[in-house]
Structures are given as C-alpha cells and as structure tokens.
Amino acid sequence: MSVEVYIGVTLSDGFFVHVAFQTVLRAPKHPGGPWNGPNDLGIFTREATDANIEYELSRAARAWQKDGRTLVSWRRLTEAEHDLCGSHRYYRNALEDVSGQLKHNMTKARVLHREALNHINGGKLLTLDRVLVDAMLGGKKEDIDSAAAARKALRDRVIDPAIDAAQTIEELSALLPLETTI
Amino acid sequence: MLILRATADILRVVTGSAADIEVHVSAMEADNATPPVVQDIVRVNTASITTATTTTILDCTTANRRRNVKHVNIYNNHASQSCLTTVEHTDGTNVETLAEVTLLASESLVFTQGGVWIHYDANGGVYPSVGNAASQAEMEAGTATDRYVTPQGMNWHPGVAKCWGKAVGAGTSLTVNWNISSIADTGTGRLGVNIGTDFSSANYVIEALLERTVTSLTANGVEDQQVRNASPAAGSFEIESYDQTTILFVAQDPQNYFFACFGDQ
Q1: Is B177 at the interface with chain A, CB within 8 A?
Q2: ipTM score of the complex?
Q3: DSSP A77
Q4: Domain boundary assignment for chain A
Q5: Chain B: closest CA distance from residue A93 (Å)
Q6: pLDDT tens for residues B33-47?
Q7: CB contact under 8 A, A119 and B249
Q8: Which of A15, A21, A60 sits opposite B236 (nearest CB)?
C-alpha cells in the first residue's frame, strides 16, 4: 500500500497545486488532528478520507493564504495525472484543472517557453557581446557579421513562429534547445 | 529481609481493579528461642484475586513465632485489565505501604530474597527507572547531568532536528521523512512543506539543500535554494529552487530537495 495519496488543488487565482498527502507519520508524539496510533513501531496512521484530506489541506492553505490565495476545490489525482505533474516541468505553472481534466494552458506554456529561452540566451548574449566588441575593435567585417548573426539567431529562437504554432506541450517541448536539461 | 511477628503481623495486597492477580509467598518460620530454631518452611499460594479488594497473603498467627519472607511473586493473569497493586505490612496497628505498581496484563511484581522489589513487563523484562528520565523541560534546557534520555525525550533537545525530509525535485512525492504530514508542488522550483507536530512559533531554523540535476556547470545546471520570503509558519514553510547561471534567474526544479528544521516544539 502506498503511503501517499495525491491530491490536486485549485486556488482562487486558478493556479494548480499538487499535494502529496501522507497516510503514515513518524513523529515523537501525537501531532493532533485525525491521526491514529502510534502503533508498536511508533507510527501514526490515517485514512485518506475526505475529512482527513480537508484537514490537511486546511493546514497547507495557511501558506497559500500568505500569497493572498485561497483554496477553491480539490480532488484525488490518478496515477497518470500524478505522472503528468512530474513531467514537462518547464511548463508546470501552465497546468490547470478544468472541468476535472488536468492539462496545460498552452497560452501560459508559450510564455514559460519564452522565459526559459531568455534565461538560456542571457549568458550566451553576454558572451557574444564581448565577441562583437572584440570584432569591432579588430575591424574585420566577417567577424562582426558572424557575431551579429549569432546574436540574431538567439533572439530569433524566442520569436520562432513554431512556438505559437505548437498545439501540444510535446510539440512545444520539442522546440527547446538541447542545452535545456529539464 | 521482611519479617512478620506473631501474632498480629500481616502481609497483604490491595488490588485497585477487577483483574486476575495471582500471589505466591515463600517464607521461613522460626521460634523465639536464642538462637531461633527453624520450625517450618512455608509457601502460600493465594486464590486468584479477581475483584478490587484487600487480601491477606501471609500472616503469622502462631504464638512466639516469626516469619522471614524470602520471596513474593504477584502476577496479573488477566488478558487485558491492568491493576493498581499495593503491598502492605501491618503490625496490627500501623499499616505501611511496601510497594505500589500498576500491573498491566501479564506483568509481575517480585520481592526477592535480597529485599528488592522488581517490576517485570509482559516479556519478562525489567522496567527501567523511569523516574530518572529527563523531562521535556530538562531536555530543552540540556544541562542536567543526572538524568537519562528516552527515545521520545531525544526529540526535545535543542540540537535535534524536529523534522526532516527528502522530496523529489518536482515536489510531488516525499521520499523519506520525519514528522512531515504532506508536501505541495506549488510551482516550478517551489516545494511547500507541512509539519506533523508544529513548532511552538514561526521562529525556528530551516536548513535546505538541493541535489543538482546535472554535474556540469552550464546554464540550467546550477540550482540554488532559499526559504521563500515570509513563508515560515509554525507548521509549514516553502523552499525555492532557481537557476542563476545567467543574468536572468529562473525558477527551476532540482533533482531532489533536502531539508531539516531545528527549534522549539
């Protein structure tokens, strides 16, 4: 039996949160709330009932309230949905639970995609800026053109029409450059 | 040595509940000659005591005799009922309590020939001297030199982590932990942690570390971590992970999160 039950939570701003609800707990004393035990091994247990899940979410909600967000709804996730939360992590913040279906908001995903590209480009552009300055000081036109072309190629990645054309998260993810590691 | 003198002395047991207390006594009986002459070797098995009552387990009714108690065995034969058990000695006027324990099911209290009372648990193990265990206050002070530490008391020392854990980088599963009731994936590079037994306030220390996703030192491979601003509460906190290898920081998952917290509960 798994000791975790996976819960999907939707907050008041529409943001999706994945919660790993623990059904067993090792602790020095009873933590309060709907825990049973401890047993002979000092382990507390609880069932993943609606009431127990809501109790745990009420505790977790204290952190969300600090961001000005409140809990709107929750439901148990399937293993496939749990796996989805762990994949395509560049686009995780685009996940939305709409009408009981967990999926990526592609508009948000495209924004996240461009943010990732800008992050990767940032360091490369700094390097190319130095190359360009050196080329300009050297006065060789081909060196200047080469550096300028490399800089343009980086910028073009961000405005690639294929980003807007991508209809699935897999298509979008395929556009990430190889140096992107997650 | 435990002595009963004729004729009013009595050794008795007071039972506090309706359990099943079985008592055996072994003793030597001597007269009052000089030197005393042994007159009998006594053993008494008292009928099972199944009510809350007072029961004489040995007397000394023959004139001019003394009984030297060598052994007393008091056993709770009940399957589940515990029993507060008191052993008393009376000289007919004054009643003195010799020993008092709560016998759980299958536990026993033994008076040895050496004059020592021993409380055995259901497995025949001797109870430790709980009276010398450090209290929560003593553990938190951390200064006592005449107390011992119990497994539970260990948790109260200021130098001990009150909770700890390892979570996967996506924040979607807790790998191992102590005193963590749930975690939350609250976004890319963000891990929410909910503590089982809360701290006494939000003023505690959070140690957080990450396992990197790659070994190289290129962009998207050098995650750094912080505690999210204003996130610590008595029962929760949040860790952030981000990549800072280029001029534009970006939230990014690590391979794994590690954390441990120290403070007062």
Answers
A1: yes
A2: 0.87
A3: P
A4: 4-86, 107-173
A5: 6
A6: 999 999 999 999 999
A7: yes
A8: A60
